[in-house]
Specification:
- By secondary structure, this protein is mostly helical.
- 65% of the residues lie in helices and 2% in strands.
- It has a two-stranded antiparallel ribbon with strand order 1-2.
- It is globular and about 65 Å long.
C-alpha cells in the first residue's frame, strides 16, 4: 500500500512543486521563502487529497482522486507579480481565499452539468486530458527547461528512453504486485542511471531545515482587489471544469460513474482546500489528471491507497528533506514514465468514446470539432492571444476549450429544440437487463446534491 501510494506521489510531485517554484522565483523570494512556499503547497495538496478520498460530510468525491496546485494559476499570478512588484503575494493569497469560497458555494449548481456529459462528451474530454498531458511528458523528457543549454540533449532523451523501456519491460515480464508498481520501479532505475551523468543533485538535501510548519499569512496579511479577484475567479472556473472532467474520467476508470452528488462533493473539497491554501500561503487546488492514468495502468482502485499518498504529501511538507527525496528524480526520467501514464489517460477516453454511437453523424462531428479546438491551444499556446485576457486564460487550456465545445455541440445536436423525454442519439441504447431497451432521455431531471 505504501509503495503504490509513493508511486502516486512520485507521479504528481513535479506538478505540485513547479508552480510555487516558478511563482517564488518571479517574486524574487529568498531560498528559505521558496522552501516555505513549496512546503505549503505540499501540505495543502495532501489535505485536499485526504478530503477527496475520505470525505467529510458532503465534502469530497470519495474517489481515488489526487489534488494539488493547479498549473493554470501560474499565468495570472505572474501577471499580478509583474504589476505589483514586491507586494504581490498578499494580494494573490487574498484572491485565492475568495476563489475557494466561490467554488465551495457554487459546487451544488456546477455539479448539475454532469447530465451534459454523455459518453460522446466525456470520452472526448478524457482523451483531451491525456493528449494535453503528452507535451508535458515531452518537455520533461528534454530536461524541463527550454532555456537550458542541454535542453533536448541526447543524455536527456536517452534517460527518458531508458526509463520508458524499463517501465515497459517491468510491466511485461513482472507479475502481481511488482507489475503494479512498474512505474515506481522505472523511476527508481532511471534515477540511478542518471547519477553518473550528474543529473541527481544530492547537495540540496543538506541545505533544508529538518522540520517546518507553515504559518498563516507568512508573507503578510491578505489584500483584496477586484481585478486580481476576477482573474483568480476565471482560473477557479477553469479548474472546476477540469476537475469535473477528471472526476468523470476517474469514475469511468474505477467503474463507479460520477453523479452530481460525487462531483458536488469533489468541487467542495477543491474549494475548501483552495481557501485553506490562501490562508497558509498556497494557491488554487485542482485535480491531477496524471494520477488517473496511474490508476488505469495499475488497476489499483482503492481510495485508501491515494489517501495514504495524501498523508505522505503532508509529511513531506512538514519535513522538507523528505520532500526533497522525491524531487531528486530528474525530469527526463519523469518524462519517460509520463509517456505511459499520460497515454493511458487518452486510451481511457477512447474506451469511453466506444460507448457512444459514433456511426451517428452528429456524434462524429461533436468529437471531431471538439478534439480540433482542444488540440489547437496545445499545439499553439498563443492561439487565443487576440481575445481578452480572461477569455484567453480560460481557453488556453485545451481541456477547457474542448470541454466547452463538446458540451455546447452536444446541447445543439441532442437537446436544442427537443421536447423533454425525447430520445437522443448521444448514447447507444443499452439493455436494462430484463430483455427491454431503455431509451436515453434528452434531459432527465437531476436531484439537487445539497
Amino acid at each position: 500500500m505504501a509503495t503504490v501510494a509513493l508511486q502516486h506521489v512520485a507521479t504528481m510531485y513535479a506538478g505540485v512543486a513547479a508552480p510555487p517554484l516558478i511563482i517564488g522565483a518571479a517574486a524574487g523570494l529568498a531560498p528559505a521563502q521558496l522552501t516555505t512556499l513549496l512546503a505549503a503547497s505540499l501540505i495543502i495538496a495532501g489535505v485536499a487529497t485526504l478530503l477527496q478520498t475520505l470525505g467529510v460530510w458532503r465534502i469530497g468525491s470519495r474517489l481515488p482522486f489526487v489534488n494539488g496546485v493547479s498549473f493554470a494559476v501560474v499565468s495570472p499570478v505572474l501577471a499580478v507579480v509583474e504589476a505589483e512588484k514586491g507586494a504581490a503575494l498578499p494580494l494573490i493569497f487574498g484572491s485565492t481565499i475568495v476563489a475557494g469560497l466561490f467554488c465551495f458555494l457554487l459546487a451544488p449548481v456546477f455539479c448539475r452539468l454532469v447530465r451534459f456529459f454523455p459518453p460522446v462528451v466525456s470520452g472526448t474530454v478524457i482523451a483531451l486530458i491525456g493528449i494535453s498531458l503528452l507535451p508535458v511528458a515531452g518537455n520533461w523528457a528534454q530536461g524541463g527547461n527550454p532555456g537550458a543549454q542541454d535542453y533536448g540533449s541526447l543524455v536527456h532523451l536517452g534517460l527518458a528512453g531508458f526509463t520508458l523501456v524499463a517501465v515497459l519491460l517491468f510491466n511485461r515480464f513482472l507479475r502481481g504486485f511488482l507489475q503494479r508498481i512498474s512505474i515506481l520501479l522505472g523511476l527508481l532505475v532511471g534515477t540511478l542511471a542518471a547519477i553518473p551523468f550528474g543529473k541527481v543533485d544530492l547537495y540540496v538535501l543538506g541545505t533544508l531545515p529538518v522540520f517546518e510548519v507553515p504559518t498563516p499569512f507568512a508573507f503578510g496579511a491578505p489584500r483584496f482587489e477586484v481585478a486580481a479577484i476576477i482573474a483568480m475567479l476565471v482560473v477557479m472556473v477553469v479548474s472546476m471544469t477540469e476537475s469535473t472532467a477528471d472526476m468523470i474520467a476517474l469514475g469511468e476508470v474505477v467503474e463507479r460513474p460520477a453523479d452530481d452528488r460525487t462531483i458536488a462533493g469533489g468541487l467542495r473539497a477543491d474549494g475548501l482546500a483552495t481557501a485553506f491554501g490562501g490562508l497558509f500561503n498556497g494557491f488554487i487546488c485542482s485535480a491531477f489528471a496524471q494520477n488517473i492514468g496511474l490508476v488505469a495502468l495499475t488497476r489499483i482502485r482503492s481510495r485508501f491507497v491515494v489517501a495514504l499518498a495524501g498523508v505522505f504529501l503532508v509529511v513531506m511538507g512538514l519535513l522538507p528533506p523528505v520532500g526533497a527525496l522525491v524531487s531528486l528524480v530528474p525530469q527526463p526520467v519523469l518524462g519517460g514514465a509520463g509517456v505511459v501514464l499520460f497515454g493511458s489517460v487518452a486510451v481511457a477516453g477512447l474506451r469511453t468514446l466506444a460507448k457512444a454511437d459514433l456511426s451517428a453523424g452528429s456524434n462524429a462531428i461533436i468529437v471531431a470539432v471538439s478534439l480540433a479546438l482542444g488540440i489547437f491551444p496545445i499545439a499553439f499556446p498563443d492561439f487565443y492571444r487576440s481575445f481578452s485576457e480572461q477569455v484567453a486564460t480560460a481557453l488556453s487550456s485545451g481541456i477547457s476549450a474542448g470541454c466547452v465545445t463538446a458540451v455546447t455541440l452536444n446541447l445543439l445536436f441532442h437537446h436544442a429544440g427537443r421536447k423533454r423525454g425525447a430520445a437522443t442519439v448521444s448514447e447507444p441504447e443499452e439493455p436494462t437487463g430484463h430483455g427491454e431497451e431503455k431509451p436515453i432521455a434528452a434531459a432527465e431531471p437531476v436531484k439537487d446534491a445539497s
